[in-house]
């Protein structure tokens, strides 16, 4: 580990480990068969036990190591840290850090950031509707401090053991993006990814106006999953011309 890493690098290193823990929680809830589904605002806006446990795990884990940060979660807004820590058993709290991230040099513009200046945005389970429908490769865990995305069931089609499933991608401006293999959209082709479950005429008209050669939408749910399509180079653009995608 490099000497005295910058606070932001320590936080990203922790977020990586916490995202791995979150993936394990999501797999465990699914395999228990008790998803604990509730409707937040309607049939297309669901919440499961995994959403709730993962958000509590992320909030409690990060705040334990970084008590001065602000955490804003998809499910409850600004996290009440004391409640999260009080409710959670120790096996849901992750205190380790990614050594690979700690060994990287912090970009100069972020090196002096203080803990109290940092805000972490969390979507504990992006693609909840797809999760309840068994579309396991559509789901992601999103932790935004630089950018950390966990795919709990990556490669699940290959029949691997639960412990071998999943992957975590991460990136930071000035450092790059890591945890995946870059693919290339063929020259001259426009491949668009868009919403799977919230489409309407405005969305389809906007996509059509781009005259894409292919549209990946029926197979791709979850904003985080579509972002992964861009990061990996499988799509040229993610288009969703409507209100709905949250910060």
UniProtKB/TrEMBL annotation:
Reactions performed catalytically: 1D-myo-inositol 1,4-bisphosphate + H2O = 1D-myo-inositol 4-phosphate + phosphate; 1D-myo-inositol 1,3,4-trisphosphate + H2O = 1D-myo-inositol 3,4-bisphosphate + phosphate
PROSITE patterns named in the record: IMP_1 (PS00629)
Protein's UniProt keywords contain Magnesium: yes
Residue sites binding Mg(2+) per the record: 74, 123, 125-126
A cellular component term, taken from the record's GO annotations: cytoplasm
GO MF term list: 3'(2'),5'-bisphosphate nucleotidase activity; inositol-1,4-bisphosphate 1-phosphatase activity; metal ion binding
SUPFAM superfamilies given in the database record: Carbohydrate phosphatase (SSF56655)
Coiled-coil residue windows: none
Cofactor(s) listed in the protein's UniProt record: Mg(2+)
Keywords: Hydrolase, Lithium, Magnesium, Metal-binding
Family per record: Belongs to the inositol monophosphatase superfamily.
Name recorded for this polypeptide: 3'(2'),5'-bisphosphate nucleotidase 1-like
């Amino acid at each position: 580990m490099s000497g005295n890493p910058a606070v932001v690098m320590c936080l990203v290193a922790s977020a990586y480990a916490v995202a791995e823990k979150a993936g394990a929680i999501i797999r465990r809830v699914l395999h228990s068969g008790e998803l604990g589904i509730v409707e937040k605002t309607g049939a297309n806006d669901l919440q499961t036990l995994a959403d709730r446990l993962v958000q509590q795990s992320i909030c409690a884990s990060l705040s334990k190591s970084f008590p001065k940060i602000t955490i804003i979660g998809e499910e409850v807004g600004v996290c009440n840290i004391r409640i999260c820590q009080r409710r959670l058993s120790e096996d849901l709290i992750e205190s380790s850090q990614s050594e690979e991230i700690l060994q990287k040099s912090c970009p100069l513009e972020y090196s002096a950031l203080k803990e109290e200046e940092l805000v972490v945005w969390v979507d504990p389970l992006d693609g909840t509707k797809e999760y309840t429908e068994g579309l396991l490769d559509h789901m992601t865990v999103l932790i935004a401090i630089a950018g950390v995305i966990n795919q709990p069931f990556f490669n699940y089609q290959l029949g691997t053991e639960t412990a071998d499933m999943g992957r975590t991608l991460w990136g930071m401006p000035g450092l790059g993006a890591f945890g995946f293999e870059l693919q290339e959209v063929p020259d001259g082709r426009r491949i668009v990814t868009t919403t799977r479950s919230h489409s309407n005429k405005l969305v389809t008209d906007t996509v059509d106006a781009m005259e894409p050669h292919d549209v990946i939408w029926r197979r791709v749910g979850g904003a985080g999953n579509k972002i992964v399509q861009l990061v990996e180079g499988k799509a040229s653009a993610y288009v969703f011309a409507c209100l709905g995608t949250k910060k």
